[in-house]
Design brief:
four-stranded mixed β-sheet, 37% helix, 7 helices
Length: 237
């Protein structure tokens, strides 16, 4: 994410304005709150282009630890932010102060988006639910797992896992909510070299994969890697 320009059309678009006091016009506060949550979602690998109630539940489950400066999650997130000189969004209290605004904002957005998804007869499934389905189907999936639902605004599956995933066994789950299908991939450790995969320019420690939707080879349009080489199976839900 570029600090000077927030992504257009994702779940957090408009959050800065929502946090702005209409009387005092404190736009700086709103911008800081939005950035704090963008960085948190990035750290938790939440796709802001397909934000669901499961993502909200994940954030709520982490709030207590993120408010406690002695928690391991607080320290890990702080270290993550410090790599890009963004720790102030946590240490100066922007994230803590933004939580109540974020929940109010989510209530309004999720109700609207759930209605849109229901009207399209699509189904929301969380990462944990998908993993449970896969395990029930007999696959021993564990460790480094990337879950991505098809982007509702473009025909790709988008994710930004840590670059360390390619040196370990890596599971990828792609969720097609139109056909209610999970596509499962297992990439053995070392199968992809670092120079073969694209990374984010602003976060070189994060892979930037955008797997083309409805492509039998599951081509990553960024690196041109064909993920069908590691396809295991598909499961309907």
């Amino acid at each position: 994410m570029n600090d000077s320009n927030s992504p257009k059309g994702d779940f957090l678009t408009g959050f800065a304005e929502y946090c702005t006091d209409p009387i005092k016009g404190e736009t700086g506060k709103g911008i800081s709150y939005e950035k704090a949550f963008r960085y948190l979602c990035e750290y938790l690998e939440i796709n802001l282009y397909s934000f669901t109630k499961a993502d909200l539940a994940l954030i709520k489950s982490k709030e207590g630890e993120l408010r406690s400066e002695t928690s391991s999650l607080y320290s890990q997130f702080k270290d993550y932010l410090q790599k890009n000189r963004r720790a102030s969004y946590l240490t100066k209290g922007h994230l803590k102060a933004a939580f109540p605004y974020f929940y109010e904002f989510c209530d309004k957005k999720i109700i609207k988006e759930a209605h849109i998804k229901d009207s399209n007869k699509a189904e929301i499934i969380s990462k944990s639910e998908a993993i449970a389905l896969i395990k029930n189907d007999g696959l021993n999936i564990s460790g480094n797992i990337t879950f991505s639902s098809r982007n509702s605004n473009s025909l790709v599956y988008w994710a930004n896992p840590n670059i360390s995933y390619i040196i370990k066994d890596w599971w990828i789950i792609l969720n097609d909510f139109d056909t209610k299908t999970l596509y499962i991939f297992h990439v053995p450790a070392g199968s992809i070299k670092q120079n073969e995969i694209s990374v984010r320019k602003d976060h070189p420690e994060r892979i930037d994969i955008q797997i083309e939707y409805n492509n039998s080879q599951f081509i990553d349009i960024r690196s041109k890697l064909k993920f069908d080489n590691w396809f295991i199976k598909s499961i309907n839900y």
